[in-house]
Amino acid sequence: MRTFIFAGIAACALAGSASAVTFTSVPGAPDPGMPAGHTMVVTFDAPEAAGYSWSGGLATAIGNSPAAAAPALDLTRYGYVSSAITPNMATLSTPALKEISFYWGSIDTYNIVEVLGFGGAVLHMVSGGDFSVADGNQLVPGTNRRVTFFWDGAAPIYGLKVTSTGIAFEFDDFSAVPVPEPASWAMMIAGFGLIGAAARRRRALLA
Fold first, then answer.
1. pLDDT by residue (tens digit) across 175-199?
2. 131 within 8 A of 193, measured Cβ to Cβ
3. Predicted TM-score (pTM) of this structure
4. 31 phi and psi angles, rounded to 5 deg
Protein backbone atom coordinates (compact mmCIF):
# COMPACT_ATOMS: atom_id res chain seq x y z
CA MET A 1 0.00 0.00 0.00
CA ARG A 2 2.80 2.45 0.95
CA THR A 3 4.62 1.78 -2.33
CA PHE A 4 1.45 2.56 -4.28
CA ILE A 5 0.91 5.83 -2.41
CA PHE A 6 4.44 7.12 -3.02
CA ALA A 7 4.38 5.96 -6.65
CA GLY A 8 1.20 7.95 -7.15
CA ILE A 9 2.77 11.04 -5.64
CA ALA A 10 5.81 10.68 -7.89
CA ALA A 11 3.58 10.31 -10.95
CA CYS A 12 1.79 13.53 -10.03
CA ALA A 13 5.11 15.33 -9.75
CA LEU A 14 6.25 14.10 -13.15
CA ALA A 15 3.00 15.32 -14.71
CA GLY A 16 4.10 18.94 -14.26
CA SER A 17 4.25 19.85 -17.94
CA ALA A 18 0.59 18.92 -18.36
CA SER A 19 -0.68 20.84 -15.35
CA ALA A 20 -2.23 24.30 -15.24
CA VAL A 21 -1.37 27.13 -12.89
CA THR A 22 -3.65 30.09 -12.26
CA PHE A 23 -2.78 33.45 -10.76
CA THR A 24 -4.34 36.51 -9.24
CA SER A 25 -2.93 39.96 -8.56
CA VAL A 26 -3.82 42.72 -6.13
CA PRO A 27 -2.65 46.24 -6.99
CA GLY A 28 -1.00 48.25 -4.27
CA ALA A 29 1.67 50.80 -3.50
CA PRO A 30 2.95 49.87 -0.97
CA ASP A 31 2.60 46.07 -0.89
CA PRO A 32 -0.97 45.08 0.09
CA GLY A 33 0.50 42.12 2.01
CA MET A 34 0.70 38.36 1.65
CA PRO A 35 -2.51 36.32 1.26
CA ALA A 36 -4.21 34.66 4.22
CA GLY A 37 -2.70 31.32 5.16
CA HIS A 38 0.71 32.13 3.68
CA THR A 39 4.07 32.10 5.45
CA MET A 40 6.83 34.55 4.53
CA VAL A 41 9.77 32.65 3.02
CA VAL A 42 12.02 35.24 1.28
CA THR A 43 12.42 38.89 2.31
CA PHE A 44 16.09 39.72 1.39
CA ASP A 45 16.38 41.21 4.88
CA ALA A 46 16.97 37.77 6.43
CA PRO A 47 18.10 34.29 5.30
CA GLU A 48 15.64 32.37 3.09
CA ALA A 49 13.40 29.83 4.79
CA ALA A 50 14.64 26.22 4.80
CA GLY A 51 14.28 24.60 1.37
CA TYR A 52 14.39 27.89 -0.58
CA SER A 53 17.46 28.95 -2.57
CA TRP A 54 18.45 31.30 -5.39
CA SER A 55 20.64 30.73 -8.43
CA GLY A 56 21.52 32.95 -11.39
CA GLY A 57 21.91 36.69 -11.63
CA LEU A 58 20.09 37.78 -8.49
CA ALA A 59 21.10 41.19 -7.09
CA THR A 60 19.81 43.12 -4.09
CA ALA A 61 19.63 46.78 -3.16
CA ILE A 62 18.09 49.15 -0.62
CA GLY A 63 16.10 52.12 -1.90
CA ASN A 64 16.85 53.54 -5.34
CA SER A 65 20.00 52.54 -7.21
CA PRO A 66 21.41 53.17 -10.70
CA ALA A 67 20.64 49.57 -11.63
CA ALA A 68 17.08 49.20 -10.38
CA ALA A 69 14.13 51.02 -8.90
CA ALA A 70 12.81 49.83 -5.56
CA PRO A 71 9.30 48.43 -5.20
CA ALA A 72 7.01 51.35 -4.46
CA LEU A 73 7.55 52.99 -1.08
CA ASP A 74 9.47 49.93 0.17
CA LEU A 75 12.82 51.07 1.58
CA THR A 76 13.89 47.67 2.90
CA ARG A 77 16.19 45.41 0.91
CA TYR A 78 14.66 43.94 -2.24
CA GLY A 79 15.80 41.67 -5.07
CA TYR A 80 16.11 42.34 -8.77
CA VAL A 81 17.45 41.02 -12.07
CA SER A 82 18.59 43.23 -14.94
CA SER A 83 19.81 43.09 -18.53
CA ALA A 84 22.93 44.82 -17.19
CA ILE A 85 23.73 41.69 -15.14
CA THR A 86 24.84 38.34 -16.59
CA PRO A 87 22.76 36.25 -16.52
CA ASN A 88 19.71 38.52 -16.71
CA MET A 89 17.60 35.99 -14.81
CA ALA A 90 17.42 34.22 -11.46
CA THR A 91 15.65 31.10 -10.23
CA LEU A 92 14.09 30.59 -6.82
CA SER A 93 14.01 26.86 -6.05
CA THR A 94 11.39 25.82 -3.52
CA PRO A 95 9.88 22.78 -1.81
CA ALA A 96 6.64 21.47 -3.32
CA LEU A 97 4.10 24.30 -3.04
CA LYS A 98 0.36 24.74 -3.38
CA GLU A 99 0.71 28.53 -3.68
CA ILE A 100 3.45 31.12 -3.97
CA SER A 101 3.12 34.90 -3.90
CA PHE A 102 5.43 37.91 -4.19
CA TYR A 103 5.36 41.67 -4.51
CA TRP A 104 6.17 42.75 -8.08
CA GLY A 105 7.45 46.32 -8.05
CA SER A 106 7.33 48.90 -10.88
CA ILE A 107 6.08 46.43 -13.50
CA ASP A 108 7.53 46.81 -17.01
CA THR A 109 6.65 44.99 -20.24
CA TYR A 110 10.11 43.37 -20.30
CA ASN A 111 9.61 41.62 -16.92
CA ILE A 112 8.90 37.87 -17.19
CA VAL A 113 8.11 35.32 -14.47
CA GLU A 114 7.90 31.58 -15.14
CA VAL A 115 6.30 29.18 -12.67
CA LEU A 116 8.34 25.98 -12.50
CA GLY A 117 7.21 22.43 -11.83
CA PHE A 118 9.12 19.23 -11.11
CA GLY A 119 12.46 19.10 -12.93
CA GLY A 120 12.19 22.75 -14.00
CA ALA A 121 9.22 22.25 -16.34
CA VAL A 122 7.52 25.58 -17.09
CA LEU A 123 3.94 25.40 -15.84
CA HIS A 124 2.94 29.00 -16.52
CA MET A 125 4.44 32.28 -17.73
CA VAL A 126 3.39 35.88 -17.09
CA SER A 127 4.99 39.03 -18.47
CA GLY A 128 4.57 42.63 -17.43
CA GLY A 129 2.73 43.19 -20.69
CA ASP A 130 -0.11 41.00 -19.41
CA PHE A 131 -1.18 43.84 -17.11
CA SER A 132 -3.14 46.86 -18.29
CA VAL A 133 -0.42 49.25 -17.10
CA ALA A 134 3.27 48.31 -17.29
CA ASP A 135 5.22 51.54 -17.52
CA GLY A 136 7.52 51.07 -14.51
CA ASN A 137 5.82 53.70 -12.37
CA GLN A 138 6.85 53.11 -8.73
CA LEU A 139 4.07 55.15 -7.13
CA VAL A 140 0.73 53.93 -8.51
CA PRO A 141 -1.07 50.71 -7.53
CA GLY A 142 -1.54 49.44 -11.09
CA THR A 143 2.17 48.93 -11.76
CA ASN A 144 2.97 47.53 -8.30
CA ARG A 145 1.17 44.31 -7.42
CA ARG A 146 1.04 41.34 -5.08
CA VAL A 147 0.92 38.37 -7.48
CA THR A 148 -0.14 34.90 -6.29
CA PHE A 149 0.18 31.64 -8.24
CA PHE A 150 -1.92 28.53 -7.47
CA TRP A 151 -1.32 24.89 -8.51
CA ASP A 152 -4.19 22.91 -10.01
CA GLY A 153 -3.86 19.89 -7.74
CA ALA A 154 -2.07 17.71 -10.31
CA ALA A 155 1.55 18.84 -9.99
CA PRO A 156 3.01 21.14 -7.32
CA ILE A 157 4.99 24.31 -7.91
CA TYR A 158 8.74 23.90 -7.37
CA GLY A 159 10.03 27.40 -8.06
CA LEU A 160 9.96 30.66 -9.97
CA LYS A 161 12.26 32.00 -12.69
CA VAL A 162 12.39 35.79 -13.06
CA THR A 163 13.89 37.47 -16.15
CA SER A 164 14.44 41.05 -17.28
CA THR A 165 15.36 42.03 -20.84
CA GLY A 166 15.43 45.70 -19.84
CA ILE A 167 16.57 47.88 -16.95
CA ALA A 168 15.26 45.69 -14.13
CA PHE A 169 12.64 43.38 -12.65
CA GLU A 170 12.17 44.18 -8.94
CA PHE A 171 10.57 41.86 -6.38
CA ASP A 172 10.25 41.30 -2.65
CA ASP A 173 8.45 39.49 0.17
CA PHE A 174 7.81 36.00 -1.22
CA SER A 175 5.27 33.95 0.73
CA ALA A 176 4.02 30.41 0.18
CA VAL A 177 1.78 27.53 1.18
CA PRO A 178 3.52 24.12 1.07
CA VAL A 179 2.08 20.84 -0.16
CA PRO A 180 1.60 18.40 2.77
CA GLU A 181 4.52 16.04 3.34
CA PRO A 182 4.16 12.49 1.87
CA ALA A 183 3.65 11.13 5.37
CA SER A 184 0.75 13.54 5.81
CA TRP A 185 -0.75 12.40 2.49
CA ALA A 186 -0.47 8.79 3.64
CA MET A 187 -2.20 9.62 6.93
CA MET A 188 -4.98 11.45 5.08
CA ILE A 189 -5.54 8.52 2.71
CA ALA A 190 -5.51 6.09 5.62
CA GLY A 191 -8.06 8.29 7.40
CA PHE A 192 -10.35 8.23 4.36
CA GLY A 193 -10.01 4.46 4.29
CA LEU A 194 -11.04 4.16 7.94
CA ILE A 195 -14.03 6.44 7.35
CA GLY A 196 -15.09 4.27 4.41
CA ALA A 197 -14.69 1.07 6.45
CA ALA A 198 -16.75 2.53 9.30
CA ALA A 199 -19.49 3.54 6.88
CA ARG A 200 -19.60 0.04 5.38
CA ARG A 201 -19.76 -1.53 8.84
CA ARG A 202 -22.58 0.78 9.84
CA ARG A 203 -24.57 -0.12 6.72
CA ALA A 204 -24.03 -3.82 7.45
CA LEU A 205 -25.30 -3.43 11.02
CA LEU A 206 -28.37 -1.51 9.85
CA ALA A 207 -29.11 -4.25 7.31
1. 999 998 764 444 444 455 556 655 5
2. no
3. 0.76
4. -55, 125
